[in-house]
Structures are given as C-alpha cells and as structure tokens.
Amino acid sequence: MTDDTQARIAEVVNSADVLLFMKGTPLFPQCGFSSRAIAILDRLGVEYATVDVLQDQGIRQGIKQFSDWPTIPQLYVKGEFIGGSDIMMEMYEEGELAQLLEDKGVAKAA
C-alpha cells in the first residue's frame, strides 16, 4: 500500500468526529456487521460520517493496515481507532460507547 493511500486515510479519519469505515452506506449496508454498527450509532444519536470501502479498493485494503485491524467496519472517534462492530456492541451494551462519545464532546445529531 502506498503512503498516498495512508495519507488519504489519515485525512478522512480526521475529517469527522465520528467516522465509520463500512461496506455500503447507512441506508444500504452491504454486510450485517456494517448494519449493526450503523444501528448502534443511530441509537446513540450522534452525528457521524461514513466511508464505503467497496467504492475504493485502496482504502478497503489500506484501512486494515492503517488501524492494524483485519476487518470492516471500523469506528474512529476524534481520530482514535475504537474497534469493529463486536467491540462497538460490547461498549454500547456496557454504556461505555455513549460515555466515550460524551467525554470526547461529540455532537448529537440534529
């Protein structure tokens, strides 16, 4: 993977307070894990952005190296890698994800 791809990913990661790299879009997730991740973010009521990795092969492969995490979806909060859908689900159920978003000052969706 090129440094250019890494730079693009870093730029995207820092472009939104909450960013989800996923397969598909929030309206049409292309896998169950991406669908679950969107459902969690929607329930938490925060503003978030998404990147459809199916639209860009470079990002699809590059994000796995960027985070050193083998699967998609991947959640970032204020530029920090949080985890995939299983970690999101665990943190959501424990109330940790809502607390993290609050601690980081993430805006609620309008």
UniProtKB/TrEMBL annotation:
Ranges where the Glutaredoxin domain occurs: 18-82
Binding site for [2Fe-2S] cluster: 31
Keyword Metal-binding: yes
Record carries keyword Metal-binding: yes
PROSITE patterns: GLUTAREDOXIN_2 (PS51354)
Source domain of life: Bacteria
Pfam family, one: Glutaredoxin
SUPFAM superfamilies: Thioredoxin-like
GO MF entry, a single one: 2 iron, 2 sulfur cluster binding
Keyword tags: 2Fe-2S, Iron, Iron-sulfur, Metal-binding, Redox-active center
Assigned protein family: Belongs to the glutaredoxin family. Monothiol subfamily.
PANTHER family membership: GLUTAREDOXIN FAMILY MEMBER, MONOTHIOL GLUTAREDOXIN-S14, CHLOROPLASTIC
Protein name: Glutaredoxin
Organism: Sphingomonas jatrophae
